[in-house]
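User: Is it possible to get a 3D structure for a protein together with its bound compound? The compound here is adenosine-5'-diphosphate. I've pasted both below.
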Amino acid sequence: MSLSVLSVASEAVPLIKTGGLADVVGALPAAVAPHDVQMTTFLPGYPAVMMAAGKVRQVHCYDDLFGHSARIVKVVDAKFSMLILDCPDLFGRDGGPYSAPSGTDWDDNWRRFAAFARAAADLASGVVKGQHFEILHAHDWQSALAPAYLRFAPGPGLAAKAVMTIHNIAFQGHYPAKIFKELGLPKSAWSVEGVMHHDEVSYLKGGMESAHAITTVSPSYAAEIRSSEFGMGLEGIVFARGDDVKGIVNGIDTAVWHPSNDKNLSATYTARTLGRRAINKRAIESTFGLDQDDGPLFIIVSRLAWQKGIDVVLEVIDHLVGNGCRLAVLGSGDAELEAGLHEAVTRHPGRVGVHIGYDEALSHLMQGGGDAILVPSRFEPCGLTQLYALAYGCVPVVARTGGLADTVIDANVAALADGVATGVQFAPVSYNGLAHAITRTVQLYRDPETWRAIQKRGMKADFSWARSGEAYAELYRKLAGNK
Ligand code: ADP
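Assistant: Yes, that's possible. Here is the predicted structure of the complex:
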């Protein structure tokens, strides 16, 4: 029997993206469709979303949603069903989804995402006639109050069951206690079983306490966040929810990420024509002002943040260059890390190149021409760049944590002998850990037969959405009691 699911998120490709969350939310509807799940995606109406949506039709109207007039609209020509909260006062602003053009978070993010979650909960309890959802699937803190509203203050109809997916437990939506009275939740929600966390309001905790099931984006991360090292203060509740917490690894959208038909590449290729990657390598060299040579070209495509271990990259750059390698970095984030990278370019002209900014097309080209990608994350719920790298024959060099540990098979002696290695894993995330991983990668690169075999194996690994789509569909059915 067909199942109707409302997927609630603050970003989704192709409409709006700041990170991996958008890739996942954008790919989910197609991933679950073969399993008879009809997914509707619900997004905030940022200018970019309203513009990309084209023709819309109003399905619900609010005179007063947290003090603002708003409406829920349906996108008329969407491939998969899509609803948007059109509330210009809260979302019709220049800047990013979460921050002003200056880069600082909007002061009223608590209100913006409470209003969004309220509207999601209304949808999931039948506020629109003829539109019934069995499941509400909330993603990350921006949507996490939706399960809390469903539990503590549902709308007029039968409330959907809720799934809460944690894409990154480091971001929790913590606000001072004084906002609680503005949220429209009953007093019973101001408790340790509700949104209260150390006398503050925690959106993510509220979602985790209220959802019928919790998922995160890899089995290793699901295990890690039970500990204080990775749980960021929420390990107690992860632990308490026990088997309700499941790890489902992200897939990649192979319609968007496939080297044989990727328009962003200078040369498309398959596992049989890997030699053509050299054309993309030349294009990267010229884009980044790097010397042209056949030595290993490392790439990084990343938010420039402590989580991603970019500070450790800065420490090992001299070692990397000293080993005859070059490095091309695409990313944006912490000003200090950006400055450190610029400084490395000055120190190593022709060997290190940096492009600060967000550039989807360039990220594809880099995967299509880089020899190896560095992903030295201190924690990584799933990680997508290593999955794209595998599909593109760009060998992933990853920290042994979370989804990175689950998706890359280290080229140790046993794995090489068994012919199963797909990359290099290392620990700890430190100068020694990363420098040693780079040395090992260079040794592998200098053995072309072994290197080719690693590349080809990665390209063959199946990280499409097929398996994960099925796992989500199974979970929805179990919760809906509709096997
Ligand atoms: P996170 O969501 O923690 O940032 P992921 O690896 O899960 O990390 O996803 C990051 C996504 O954002 C990938 O699709 C990656 O290609 C993309 N990305 C990150 N930085 C940039 C950038 N500067 N330009 C283009 N794409 C980027």
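The first helix runs from residue 20 to 32. Residues 55 and 289 are 43 Å apart (CA to CA).
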